[in-house]
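Lab meeting minutes (informal)
Scribe: AK
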Amino acid sequence: MNLGAIEPLAHLGIELVHCNAAEAVFSLPLDGNRNDKATVFAGSQYSVLVLAGWYLTSAWAAEQQLGDKVAIKDSQVQYPKAALTDLRIVARFVSPPERRPSGHWRALLSVEARDQQGELVSQFTGDYRILQA
């Protein structure tokens, strides 16, 4: 998992805060991600939500020695509140990853972005695949 190889990270100011078996935590600054309403651009939020889920799934796959081919298959996102501050993003597994009949693994994740007051500003559900070589 080479975060440095993902070019939008630097442009959006996305930073990894920490990652363990239970969660991956990232930050996204308001500066550099404002839209025309002076709130955090939804596209920037979506990028970090997908990335956080991908990172946690990739970390799990590496721990299980399943390789590094992780891809998002499907997702759903909601934006219940405008984001006016820097964001803290937390990705967690909905349930343990499971092996599919195809041999690939499926990982369902929930990722939340909260503002500096702890208010939910975006919520993402991602269906990731760990592809076997």
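Next up, CB showed the second protein from the same session:
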Amino acid sequence: MSFAVGVMAAMYLCGGVSGAHLNPAVSFSFCLLGRLQWRQLPFYSFSQILGAYVASAVVFLQYYDAILEFGRGNLTVTGPTETASIFATYPSEYLSLESGFFDQVVGTATLLLCILPLDDRLNSPAPKGLVPPLVGLVVLGISMAMSSNCGAAINPARDLGPRLFTLTAGWGTEVFTAYRHWWWVPVVAPMLGSVLGSCLYLTFIQWHLPDPQGGPSPDAASRTKIQDPSAPAPRSDSESIAMPSWDP
């Protein structure tokens, strides 16, 4: 629940400045769809990871005494008193890397399938002011349904930023080596999941929507095709997902 509220609050706070993607997988999807310029992707991703790192530092300072009390004075990654999972995600004991990878691909694809229609003018877009709580509900639903395997990261920044913080705050390099070097799964798999979700939405939904004038749209594919990385992104406010639009 707290993650969903955090997503909603962040979207209301930052939507007018950046569109409040909050997630490199979402930004990557928007680049593929031509809603964000490719040259902006590194800056978005870095800012998202940095934000997650700083947020982890705030949580650590706020709950420092409680963390040390539970860990009996130690900062550990595995075992009955581990506290690293407060910050980054780790798999359940039964989960294989392959199953965890699939879990993250499906979770992120589901996220994109749910949020892309919210500001698609050819579909049934939500009022701008309602997009943040709707996205928060999507995140809440995915978290409740898909957390048991490996925490439902569905966001490389949400996992990598806190993992880097735990590396520097005293948990050590085990945060990257534990569970058969699990760390790369919640970084790579969501990016692939965003591609899958975007392609599914384009192929089975957006290309079949009628144009605003009525009737089937013969050029729908040309309006929504995957963008060439070398081509400039269109400057359409209506194509920005969520929040008060901004002009890249």
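CB comment: The two ends are 32 Å apart (CA to CA).
No objections, moving on.
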